[in-house]
Design a protein that fits this description.
Blueprint (H helix, E strand, L loop, with lengths): L2 E2 L7 E2 L3 E5 L6 H12 L6 E3 L2 E3 L13 E3 L2 H9 L3 E7 L2 E6 H9 L3 E5 L2 H11 L3 E7 L3 H11 L4 H14 L8 E4 L3 H16 L8 H16 L1
Parallel strand pairs: 3-9, 3-10, 4-9, 5-6, 10-11
Antiparallel strand pairs: 1-2, 5-8, 7-8
Helix pairs in contact: 1-7
The structure holds guanosine-5'-diphosphate and adenosine-5'-diphosphate.
Length: about 230
């Protein structure tokens, strides 16, 4: 369940799951793409969990990269074979996280980024609380949220209206998250998300070798001090 710290330090640690959730248009996809881009420039990498969804692909999306786009029948088959770590119906479509790649990554000490809603977050927290860090992203104002959805220009106006009205229910789940980011300035939000990730990587519970490391340090100190 561990590997060398990717930053080259001597401590081994378990991988973690970083969840980003938000009402549509708050900016979680932008934050996660930025985080993934930056991370992958270094060894200190985090990988996106690619969800399966029955939603229609947006023009900017690539099948297999941003989502695996599947039919309802394919989705239901995965769900019924317990191939999904969590799943939910959101804005009238199914979304789910394939289980196997996540389990493999964590076992290898790698971190995984989830862009999932509050229903999925709840399921992951129930199953894997110790490995999971949940971050909720909010828009600064409702008017800005609408403006972002309109500027994104990838959804029809009825889809945008549905997403805005669903936001009222979604934001009631803020207490179920470990951290909250109000995404006013994108660069600042990305910096905060990175800070959360870096701090969580240092949590003592994830450092599986720590007792051995401390014991070795103590032996060296004893030798140094005679
Ligand atoms: N539970 C769950 N939610 C997901 C998953 N993938 C995406 N979502 C959520 O589904 C919602 C809609 O996502 P999407 O259609 O990409 O629209 P967007 O939020 O406007 O970018 C968002 O809240 C996502 O976080 C998943 O695998 N599981
Ligand atoms: N801090 C920000 N300031 C201004 N525009 C933003 C900011 N964050 C994201 N956006 C823009 O808002 C739109 C919605 O962002 P997106 O990341 O797709 O949101 P979500 O994934 O939460 O639905 C996109 O066009 C994106 O470029």
């Amino acid at each position: 369940m561990s590997s060398e710290m990717p930053d080259g330090g001597p401590l081994k640690r378990r991988g973690l799951i970083l969840i980003l959730s938000s009402p549509s248009g708050a900016g979680k996809t932008s934050i996660s793409r930025s985080l993934l881009g930056e991370e992958n420039k270094s060894d200190n990498s985090i990988h996106l969990s690619v969800s399966v969804t029955t939603r229609k692909r947006r023009p900017s999306e690539v099948d297999g990269v941003h989502y695996n786009f599947v039919s309802t029948r394919q989705f239901e088959s995965m769900r019924d074979h317990d191939d999904l770590l969590e799943w939910a119906e959101v804005h009238g479509n199914y979304y789910g996280t394939p289980r196997e790649p996540v389990e493999a990554a964590l076992q290898a000490g790698k971190d995984v980024l989830f862009d999932i809603d509050w229903q999925g977050t709840r399921q992951v927290l129930e199953k894997m609380r110790a490995d999971t860090v949940a971050v909720f992203v909010l828009p600064p104002t409702a008017a800005e949220q609408r403006a972002r959805l309109e500027r994104r220009a990838e959804d029809d106006s009825d889809v945008i209206a549905r997403r805005l009205s669903n936001a009222r229910d979604e934001i009631t789940h803020w207490t179920e998250y470990d951290y909250v980011l109000v995404n006013t300035d994108l660069d600042e939000s990305v910096a905060k998300a990175r800070a959360i990730l870096n701090a969580e990587r240092c949590r003592r519970e994830r450092l599986v070798d720590l007792p051995d490391f401390i014991a070795a340090l103590d032996r060296d100190l004893a030798a140094e001090t005679g």
